[in-house]
Design a protein that fits this description.
3-stranded antiparallel β-sheet; 5-stranded antiparallel β-sheet; 1 helix; mainly beta
Amino acid sequence: MAMASGLYVVTWRDATDTSNATLDLLLTTNKVDLYTDTKSPNFDTDAAYDATNELATAGGYTRDTKTVGGAPTYALGNAGQLKYSWSASVDWAAASFTARGMILHTAAANLPFCAVTFGSDFTATAGTFSVTAHANGIFVIDLVP
């Protein structure tokens, strides 16, 4: 299995049950980490930030240092949907690396809440590597399918 997109079940479950895990999607301190194509997130069991298959600290990338882009929003999308997005891009300057996807996690408890594959490898060579939220958001939860 390779890098995939999804929401981390353990984090979302623990945020809504008696575990009382703190999942505040509006914090600007939530982290964005880039991964290679060999990362295989297990959305059913992964419960903490894991640097396995994260890009190495090199070529303009430093592990676990970038935060979400600008002010995050968590609002009504289309009818019955909640959309998570950002107001600005996340940029790595002077970048010379290749990434396949990203994983978002809380800064305080290192709880992963979302992984996004880019669909293929993207490479920056002595330039800026940017991740910008799509008009449809980073992810959407359809509460009325």
